[in-house]
Amino acid sequence: MGSIMDQKRAMAKHCSREGVKAGAKAAVVATIATAIPTLVSARMLPWARANLNPTAQALIVSTAAGMAYFIVADKTILATARRNSFHPNNVKA
């Protein structure tokens, strides 16, 4: 009985690890994709220069990165769990 729970625990860790890796990659891409236009617009556009202080710029970039991380991590964990549930060697208690 302990080995079944150990296998399930290992599978859950694997799914979580895959989600963290994919989420981190997505957060890096989102950071780059939002930081460049945010910083450029804050320097070039008069409205943005007047209204987007450094705190607002950081908030825009970090919000995009956080959203990307959680969305991609969640989708990856669910996809990995679904894929493993159809695996012929999966464990059923």
Automatic annotation (TrEMBL):
- Name the InterPro entries for this protein: Enod93
Could you list the residue ranges that cross the membrane? 52-73
Key words of the record: Membrane, Transmembrane, Transmembrane helix
Question: What's one Pfam family the UniProt record gives for this protein?
Answer: ENOD93
Q: Which domain of life is it from?
A: Eukaryota
PANTHER family attached here? Answer: EARLY NODULIN-93
Designated name of the protein? Early nodulin-93-like
* Annotated organism of origin: Lithospermum erythrorhizon
